[in-house]
Amino acid sequence: MASHHPMTPSLCHTHGPAPTVSPHDIMTVHHPPSLPPPCHPQATAPRAPRHPMTSSPLRRPMTSSALRHVAAPPLRHRAALPRPSRPLRRWCPPARAVVAAMAQPGGGRPVTISDVQQLVRRKDELEAQIKACYELLEGQKGVGMHEPLVDAEGFPRADIDLYQVRTARHNVICLQNDHKALMKQVEEALHQLHAREKEKHAKDEAEALAEAMSQSQNLPQAFAKVNTVTPGSPASVSGLQVDDEIVEFGSVNVNNFQNLQNIATVVQHSEGRPLSVTVIRSGKKVHVGLTPKRWAGKGLLGCNIIPLQR
Length: 310
Fold this sequence. Notes:
Protein name: 26S proteasome non-ATPase regulatory subunit 9
Order of helices and strands: HHHHHEHEHEEE
Strand content: 5-15%
GO biological process, one term: proteasome regulatory particle assembly
Structural class: alpha+beta
Distance between the termini: 160 Å
Number of domains: 2
Region (Disordered): 1-63
Pfam family, one: PDZ_6
InterPro entries: Nas2_N (IPR040815), PDZ (IPR001478), PDZ_6 (IPR041489), PDZ_sf (IPR036034), PSMD9 (IPR035269)
C-alpha cells in the first residue's frame, strides 16, 4: 500500500470519520474582500438623468463638428417638422463629356458654337439647382449655410430636418464648385472660339488683299481719265463716274491712243449707237455701255476726259 505524505491529507479518508458540512455553511455565500456583495450600497450606481422626450440617458453636449455622425431624429419626433415641397435629390456630378471632347492643346476637335451653347445650358441648370437648395434651406427656419444646427445646450435642433439641411448644404457646396469650374470652361471655350474667328477673319483679309494686288498687277494700262460727269448726261446715264480710268473706248486703247482727238472721232462716228467702254474703278475692271447722243447739255457725252501722264 502506498504511503501518504505526512503533510498532505488523503483524498480517501480511510482513517477517522468523514468531514461534515452544516446547513449554515451551504446557505452562506462568501464574497472576496475586494468585491462588495450585491446588497452593498456601493454596488448599485445612481440612475443617470433621462431626456424628457426620448427617455434616453443624457449625454455630453455635442459640438458642430460631431453632428456629421449624427443620424436623423426618430420619425415620431419629425412628424411635426415642415416637409419640403418636393423631395431633395442627391446631388450627382455633371457630365464633362462636352469639355473633354473640345479642342485641347495638341489635339482634339475645334470648339463650335453649339458646344458653347451646351455649356451655357448646363450653367443654367446648375444655377437652378443651387437656387432650389437655397429655397429649401430658407424653408427650414432660414438656417442658411452657416446657422448652427445645435441648440444653446449643444444638442441637435429638433425644429428642423437635420438630414435635409445637411444634404442641401452639401449639394450647394458641390454645385458651386461645379459652377465655378464650368464658368472657367465656358471662358476657355469662348476664348478659343473668338481666337479662331479672329484668325479666320485675318486670313480672309489677307486673301482678299492678295487677290486685289494680283488683280491690280494684271489690270491693263489706262490712257485717259474721266474728270467730270454732268448729271443727266449720256455719260451719267451709262454709269461713268469721276476718276474712272479709261482702258478701252470703242476701238481706242493704250496701243493706238495718241490724243483726245481719237476719242472725239469715235464719238462722232458712233452717235446713237452703243460703245463698249472699259474703265478701272477702285482697282477693278468695269465695263460700261455708253451711247453718244444729243441731250440738253453740250456735246454728245456730257463728261470731260483728260489724258493720263505716264
